[in-house]
Specification:
Elements: E1 2-7, E2 10-15, E3 26-32, H1 38-52, E4 57-63, H2 68-80, E5 85-88, H3 96-106, E6 110-113, E7 126-130, H4 133-147, E8 151-158, H5 164-177, E9 184-192, H6 197-209, E10 216-219, H7 222-234, E11 242-244, H8 250-257, E12 264-266, H9 269-284, E13 292-294, E14 298-300
Parallel strand pairs: 3-4, 3-5, 5-6, 6-7, 7-13, 8-9, 8-10, 10-11
Antiparallel strand pairs: 1-2, 12-14
Helix pairs in contact: 1-9, 2-3, 4-5, 6-7
Subcellular location: Cell envelope
Domain Periplasmic binding protein: 29-288
Protein name: Sugar ABC transporter substrate-binding protein
Length: 312
């Protein structure tokens, strides 16, 4: 079953349940930005399980270890091995045009997943499967605004600025604060913590040690938000601080259950993983797929978090 939604003035496809794939074998080369990331691990595991359920589909998974050069080499190796399609979770989205050019020159279909490519347009046999980060930043900040009653001071913890998602989540959170009823909220500090729980904890500790006062922590992902919770707990300031993340990972939902995290945004790793494999198999079989395949974000709060506990 599939349904169409309107997105940014055009019709896009959302995969709700994947159709049966062709019986022909397909070898897919998959390079992940890193294996050492909570959300990307869920994504990777769902790609593996979905591929295993499809007859004749084989994944070759590689860890780029957050190294651009390593990822480019992995793509080149896939091309040399003549895989049927390549799937990329980009280390640095500024490199996606180069990856696209390599795959196009080799005539191999390419699917970017989760991290949106920066290519001006995607050529034939190239697709992106993921979620619109302008939406996640918007709905996250609107809920933080609601919980702060439209006024207060916030800090923003950004992901790796080499990724489009970090830039968009930050930009659209700030856009919410530029307009009523949320323009009584001010950003007192923003820095990157590179998607890391440890770096998120250390950054918040540094802010507090410097005497910075804030009413909310708005993090580009759950891992950094969980690090902020650790720092705030150790300083006895968590009860007075709204902590918001994005992804709705199991650790984040557990933190919401205890009341430590107030806001997160569900990013459907299962649908993204299945959608990426689905698109790669279809492109390898010569079928057409939409160039942009969107999986919607969903707001998660204490009122509805239980319904998300079994979804990732």
């Amino acid at each position: 079953m599939k349904r169409f939604i309107k997105h940014a003035g055009s019709v896009v496809l959302v995969s709700l349940a994947m159709q049966a794939m062709p019986a022909s074998a397909a070898r897919l080369g998959v390079t992940m930005a890193t294996f050492d990331n909570n959300f990307l691990t869920i994504l990777r595991n769902n790609m593996k399980s979905y591929a295993a359920s499809q007859k004749g589909v084989n994944l070759q998974l590689e860890d780029a270890q957050n190294d651009v050069g390593r990822q480019i080499s992995q793509v080149q190796n896939f091309i040399a091995q003549k895989v049927d399609a390549i799937v990329v979770s980009a280390v640095d989205t500024s490199t996606t045009p180069k990856i696209t050019k390599l795959a196009q020159a080799a005539g191999i279909p390419l699917v970017f997943v989760n991290r949106m490519p920066t290519d001006k347009t995607l050529p034939p046999k190239v697709a992106f499967v993921g979620s619109d980060d302008s939406v996640s930043g918007t709905i996250q900040m609107k809920e933080v605004c609601r919980q702060l009653n439209g006024k207060g001071s916030v800090v923003i913890m950004m992901g790796d600025l080499a990724t489009q998602e970090a830039r968009l989540r930050t930009r659209y959170a700030e856009e919410v604060m530029s307009k009523a009823p949320c323009n009584g909220i001010k950003v007192v500090e923003k820095q990157t913590a590179k998607w890391s729980r440890t770096e998120g904890r250390d950054l918040v500790m540094n802010w507090m040690t410097a005497g910075l006062k804030f009413d909310a922590v708005v993090a580009n992902n759950d891992e950094m938000a969980l690090g902020a919770i650790q720092a705030l707990k150790s300083s006895g300031k968590l009860d007075k601080t709204v902590v918001a993340g994005i992804d709705a990972t199991q650790d984040a939902l557990n933190a919401m259950k205890t009341g430590d995290m107030k806001v997160t945004v569900f990013q459907d790793a299962a649908a993204q993983g299945k959608g990426a494999v689905d698109a790669a198999i279809k492109l390898a079989a010569g079928e057409k797929v939409p160039s942009m395949i969107w999986v919607p974000y969903e707001l998660v709060t204490a009122a509805n978090y239980k319904s998300y506990q079994s979804r990732n």
